[in-house]
Every structure is written in C-alpha cells, then in structure tokens.
C-alpha cells in the first residue's frame, strides 16, 4: 500500500491497533496503524507504528 514501507510477514499483526486523528494539526485526519509483531533487525516482536498522513486527496 502507498505510504506503508516494507513487506508483510506472518505474525506482524498489522492493524492490531488503529486510530484516526490529526496528528500534524494540518486539518486532515491521519491514520495511525500499530504492528506489534513486527521484527526489527534481529529483535522479534519489537513492534512498529505506521502513520499515514491525510490530505485533501486522502491518506
């Protein structure tokens, strides 16, 4: 998906937690997506948060 870096892997749990609010105060809602099972480097289940910034044309 545009705005989401990397690839999905089994157990990532992409979207386990999702919230929507205007994090950058630009007047457009942003989507915050939790990925608690994401591995980073050699650390399993380190977790990650994606922020998809909203705009006049969408997120």
Q: Overview of this structure, please?
A:
The chain is mainly beta. The protein has a domain at 17-52. The chain is built from no helices and 3 strands. Strands 1-2-3 form a 3-stranded antiparallel beta sheet, with no helix packed on it. A hairpin with an 8-residue loop joins β1 and β2 (30-35). The chain is elongated.
Please state the structural category. Answer: mainly beta
What amount of the residues lies in strands?
Answer: 25-35%
Query: N-to-C SSE series?
Result: EEE
Low-confidence runs of at least 5 consecutive residues: none
What order do the helices and strands come in, and which of them pair?
Layout: E1 17-21, E2 30-35, E3 48-52
Antiparallel strand pairs: 1-2, 2-3
Summarize it:
This protein has about 60 residues and is mostly beta strands.
Defining key terms:
about 25% strand, about 0% helix, mainly beta, about 60 residues
